[in-house]
Amino acid sequence: MDNAEMDNHETDDYETDNSELNDAELDGSELDAPELEAMADCVPIPKIFHSVYEAGPFSKCVVCTKALLDDETDYMVEKIFRGSETIVEYAICSDCAVAMYSELSAESTGRIEQYLSEKINWQSRLEMAMGTHGDDIAQWIDTCLVTGRPRDQLPGYQLCARCRGPKLQRFIFPLMIAGDVSEDIGRLLSKKTRDRMDGFVDEYLGLSPEYRDIFDGTPLLMV
Ligand SMILES: [Zn+2]
Ligand 1 mean position to 99 CA, how many Å? Predict the structure, then answer.
C-alpha cells in the first residue's frame, strides 16, 4: 500500500498518547511490493504451510471461498502455532486481503510499517533471498524476523507466506514472527483496527476461546 492510498483512509482514535510517531514519520518501508514480487522465486508449497484441516495445500479463500490452486491466483497463508500445534490457519486471496487491509486505519498500518522498517534487517533478508537454497525455506522461517530468536525455542509463533497457485513465493516472505512480537505489533494498532481484526477472527477463523489470550486475539494480517 502506498502513501497516497493510505491518505485516503480516515484516521481514528489511537488510544495511547505515548507514541513518538507522528504522521510525518509514517512513511512506511522503502520496499516497493510489485518490484519485490517480480524478484521472488517460487518453490512448491512446503508442508508447514499446508492446511492441517485440509491435509494439503489450502484450496480456497477463507473469506470469499475463491479457489486458490490455479496457477494465477495470489493469496496469503497465515498460521499461528503454539509449540508444534497449529491453533489458527487460513488462506486469504489477494483481493480479500487488500479489501480487509484497506479497512484498517492509516495510522495503524503506518505504525506497523514504521515498526517493521526499523526493526528488521532488510539488507540481510535480501542477501539471503539472493542466495541459492534449492527448494528450502528453512532460513526464512527458522528465526524470528524481528528478534532473530530460533523458532524451536519459542512457545508460540506466527508464519506467513505469499503464494501463487501451487507455489510459494520466496523473497521477503515467507516469514516467522515470535508470538510475543506479534503481540507487540498488535499493541501498535488502534482500538478500531483491533476490533476490526477481532471481527475477522470471529467471523472466519473460529478461534477457540482458550487460545484467545495467547495471541491477544489478534492474528496479524500481513499483506
Ligand atoms: Zn477471497
Answer: 9
